[in-house]
Amino acid sequence: MKANEGTERxxxxxEKNPRKMTLQLARDLGVPEVEVIRAxxxxxxxxxxxxxxxxxxxxxEAFGSVRVLVSNGATTxxxxxxxGGFSTAGEFFNVQTDSLDMHIRGQQLAAVFAxxxxxxxxxxxxxxxxxxxxxxxxxFKVFLNFGGPxxxxxxxxxxxxxxxxxx
Length: 167
Fold this sequence. Notes:
Layout: H1 3-16, H2 22-29, H3 33-38, E1 45-47, H4 53-59, E2 65-71, E3 76-82, E4 87-89, E5 92-96, E6 101-105, E7 109-118, E8 125-133, E9 138-143, H5 152-165
Antiparallel strand pairs: 1-7, 2-3, 2-9, 4-5, 5-6, 7-8, 8-9
């Protein structure tokens, strides 16, 4: 299969199933999840400047509580927490607050996107920042709304950050 055919196949699947979890679409299609995100319509996804990932993460502190999803081949965890308490130790960029404790290996991150997508549960449009590793798997996702509409001030901040960090 040629690259264009693969991309078109992914785009068709995204168009047919806009609410389906991108992880599941990727598995169904046998492609890295990042390729599903890249196949979204341009008005729903924007690739951001990966070189500025630490600055982007630090900007999440202003949102207050967000939903963070981390998934691997066997488990997905969803946690509501607030970004803050930033530090660096060895290879780790740390996020440590009372509600969120993450240790990120930044050298493994390869891409980040601002994503607008209908939620898989109820179709309510979600806004998120999604980070992918070098294999194209999701490293973690930061949702500004989950299971309900996004408040206008969060929507405005999402747009501001998307534009500030776009490639």
